[in-house]
Amino acid sequence: MPVIACDVKVLEHQRLTDTIRLMTVSWPRRDKAPKAGQFFMLRCWPADVAPVLSRPISVHSYDPELATLDFLYEVRGKGTEKLAALVPGDTLSLVGPAGNGFNVAEAAGKRVALVGGGIGTAPLYQLAKELCEAGTKADYFCGFRDEPYGMDRFTQVCGKVQLATDSGRFGFHGFVTQLLKPEEYDLVLCCGPEPMMRAVAKLCDAVGTRCIVSLERKMACGIGACLGCTCHTETGGRCVCKEGPVFDSKEVFGA
């Protein structure tokens, strides 16, 4: 489906932690409904003003009834600092929905686990909603350095919800991979830091459970024209923005 460019209004902007924001914007284009795993290129500054590139942010949630989009993101640099300064009523430019998302139909009738780490948990909520609507309540495993965020939404659309933190102040003290038992699932869907996803993929490969991962890369165009987000795969270079960001773990990490 071709991406579109349009301006939308910021409806709500919440500060969840010192660096994590949840922004809700209008999205009346029901003919361009985003799917779990897709993303938009966000920009709220003129084209001739730094930073040069828009910021790729995954869809955290889409509500067709309210005609809204949620973006859960981390403030990391100049671009996201500008996004974080937006207040309700401000205008935001979006290009999308872009990329290939998760194949929800593939998960129908299967035992499914979602595994997320840090801000990589952002696209998993829309995925959990779509799975639940399709009749599959996935189990959710999430890992954070310290204080978790955004977990409350998952309890309504998932089965088991388990938390691990590096600090041990919340949930299990350790890595999220220590909570996951991939042999109990037919399919594991994962998004987070690449070392974590590689570890999840290795665990899945050891017991023959299929693992699907969503990659993160710096992007310039977001539509596969510049080749700036190319990743190495078993079959050659692939554009994360256009041919991903969702891939079979064997394709991008090997067996």
UniProtKB/TrEMBL annotation:
Gene3D superfamilies documented for this protein: Dihydroorotate dehydrogenase, electron transfer subunit, Nucleotide-binding domain of ferredoxin-NADP reductase (FNR) module, Translation factors
Superkingdom field: Bacteria
Keyword Electron transport: yes
Annotated FAD-binding FR-type domain residues: 3-104
Binding site for [2Fe-2S] cluster: C221, C226, C229, C241
Database matches in CDD domains: DHOD_e_trans (cd06218)
Alphabetized InterPro entries for the sequence: Cyt_c3_hydrogenase_gsu (IPR012165), Dihydroorotate_DH_ele_sf (IPR037117), Dihydroorotate_DH_Fe-S-bd (IPR019480), Dihydroorotate_DHASE_ETsu (IPR023455), FAD-bd_FR_type (IPR017927), FNR_nucleotide-bd (IPR039261), PyrK_electron_transfer (IPR050353), Riboflavin_synthase-like_b-brl (IPR017938)
Keywords: 2Fe-2S, Electron transport, FAD, Flavoprotein, Iron, Iron-sulfur, Metal-binding, Pyrimidine biosynthesis, Transport
PROSITE patterns in the cross-refs: FAD_FR
Known partners and oligomeric status: Heterotetramer of 2 PyrK and 2 PyrD type B subunits.
Protein's UniProt name: Dihydroorotate dehydrogenase B (NAD(+)), electron transfer subunit
Gene: pyrK
